[in-house]
Amino acid sequence: MAQFQRPTLCCCRKVLTVPSKSCEGGQGLGQCRLVDIASASNFHCFKLRHFHLDLRLNFAVKEITGWQVLELVAIQPGVQTLVLDTHPSLLIQSIDCKVPGTTGAQDISPSLIYRVDPFTDYGSSLNISLPAYVIRPHRAFQITVRYTTTDGPAIWWLDAELTCGQTRPLVFTQGHSVCNRSFFPCFDTPAVKSTYTATVRVPEGVTVLMSASRSAYSKQDRVFQFSMEYPVPAYLVALVAGDLQHVDIGPRSRVWAEPCVLTCAVSKLGGSVERWLNVAEDLFGPYVWGRYDIVFLPPSFPIVAMENPCLTFIISSILESREFLLIDVIHEIAHGWFGNAVTNATWEEMWLSEGLATYAQRRITTEAYGEAFTCLETVFRLDALHRQMRLLGDNNPVSKLQVKFEPGINPSSLMNLFTYEKGFCFVSYLSQLCGNVKRFDSFLRAYIEQFKFSSVVAQDLLDFFLCFFPELKESCVAQREGLEFERWLNACGPPLCEPDLSAGGVLTGPVQRLCDLWASEPPDPEAIANFNLSSWSTFQTVLFLDRLLDRSPLSHEVMGQLSRCYSAQLDEMNAEVRIRWLQIVVRNSFYPDLPRIRGFLHKHTSRMYTVPLYEDLCSGVMKCFAAEVFYQTQARLHPNLRRTLQQILFQTSALSTPTGSVPSLLHPTPSSPSPTPRDQLGPADPPTTGTIALRDVNVSA
Ligand SMILES: [Zn+2]
Question: Which of this chain's residues are annotated to bind Zn(2+) (predicted)?
Answer without folding.
Answer: 331, 335, 354
